[in-house]
């Protein structure tokens, strides 16, 4: 009798977790670059009540959430026409880094190493000194691990190519060229595709932290071509949440929660009957 009650409690806890994940998915249906999650369940330990016969007689002791997996399938694209809005057409993430300056452009005190993150969010902005940043202030990195800066005093405008290079228009003579370093190396936006993106750790703000589960060696500053990926300018990748799927899963979770609560109430009624028998 008590086994059924504990099984019902474990089921309710599991479906509560599922509802939490579904609620988060629905809340982020319009979040740029968001990847939806799903809960995978597993059965808990089973108690052997009899070893007589060929097959053992076992009673399960409920279920638990085995993992919360992230679905990294690409979301739909939304055209914006803004040149600094970027969408990754394929696998991989942009590599960004904590800012070392305040909103006023003043250096911040060095208290800890600046962390690097991965993100699919490509709604970038250009600050007043020419750095490409996320709206939260993280710097976009290139294939050399450097922060990308476009000198606003030298260039009139710029456009980001599908291979991650940046074509700039000179203010002096109106000529166009690919942005390069002083040593003549081409500046190219980095794209990194970890072996196991589901192993990344979410850190808020549509950012991911690299973990050992996602792949060994940390973040690499690889090119879009090496990841069989292109960058689309003037477009944003939207959330991959499908509301029809989430509503269906929500109904299933709700019914599962109700059924498990019914197990507890039914077990309680039977226990009450046993107590009454003694009277």
UniProtKB/TrEMBL annotation:
Domain Flagellar hook protein FlgE/F/G-like D1 per the UniProt entry, residue ranges: 87-168
Keyword Lipid biosynthesis: no
Ranges where the Flagellar basal body rod protein N-terminal domain occurs: 5-35
Family: Belongs to the flagella basal body rod proteins family.
Subcellular location(s) per record: Bacterial flagellum basal body
Matching SUPFAM superfamilies: Flagellar hook protein flgE
InterPro entries from the UniProt entry: Flag_bb_rod_N, Flagellar_basal_body_rod_CS, Flagellar_FlgE/F/G, Flg_bb/hook_C_dom, FlgE/F/G-like, LlgE_F_G-like_D1
PANTHER family: FLAGELLAR HOOK PROTEIN FLGE (PTHR30435:SF1), FLAGELLAR PROTEIN (PTHR30435)
Key words of the record: Bacterial flagellum, Cell projection, Cilium, Flagellum
Domain Flagellar basal-body/hook protein C-terminal: 232-277
Transmembrane stretches, start-end: none
Annotated function: A flexible structure which links the flagellar filament to the drive apparatus in the basal body.
One Pfam family per UniProt: Flg_bbr_C
Annotated PROSITE patterns: FLAGELLA_BB_ROD
Protein name, UniProt field: Flagellar hook protein FlgE
Lineage: Bacteria, Bacillati, Bacillota, Bacilli, Bacillales
Coiled coil segments of this chain: none
Organism: Chryseomicrobium palamuruense
């Amino acid at each position: 009798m008590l086994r059924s009650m504990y099984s019902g409690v474990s089921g309710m806890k599991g479906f509560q977790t599922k509802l939490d994940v579904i609620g988060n998915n629905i809340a982020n249906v319009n979040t740029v670059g968001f990847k939806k999650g799903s809960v995978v369940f597993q059965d808990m330990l089973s108690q052997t009540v009899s070893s007589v016969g060929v097959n053992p007689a076992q009673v399960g002791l409920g279920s638990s959430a085995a993992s919360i997996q992230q679905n990294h399938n690409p979301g739909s694209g939304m055209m914006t026409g803004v040149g600094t809005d970027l969408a990754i057409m394929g696998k991989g993430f942009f590599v960004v880094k904590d800012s070392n300056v305040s909103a006023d452009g003043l250096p911040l005190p060095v208290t800890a190493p600046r962390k690097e993150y991965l993100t699919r969010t490509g709604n970038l902005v250009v600050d007043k000194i020419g750095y490409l940043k996320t709206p939260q202030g993280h710097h976009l990195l290139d294939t050399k691990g450097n922060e990308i800066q476009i000198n606003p005093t030298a260039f009139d405008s710029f456009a980001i190519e599908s291979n991650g290079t940046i074509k700039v228009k000179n203010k002096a003579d109106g000529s166009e060229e690919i942005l390069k370093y002083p040593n003549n190396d081409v500046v190219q936006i980095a794209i990194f595709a970890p072996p196991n993106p589901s192993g990344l750790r979410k850190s808020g703000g549509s950012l991911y932290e690299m973990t050992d589960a996602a792949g060994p060696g940390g973040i690499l500053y690889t090119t879009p071509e090496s990841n069989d990926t292109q960058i689309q300018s003037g477009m944003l990748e939207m959330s991959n949440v499908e509301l029809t799927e989430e509503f269906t899963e929500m109904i299933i979770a709700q019914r599962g929660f109700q059924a498990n609560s019914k197990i507890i109430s039914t077990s309680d009624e039977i226990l009450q009957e046993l107590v009454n028998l003694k009277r």
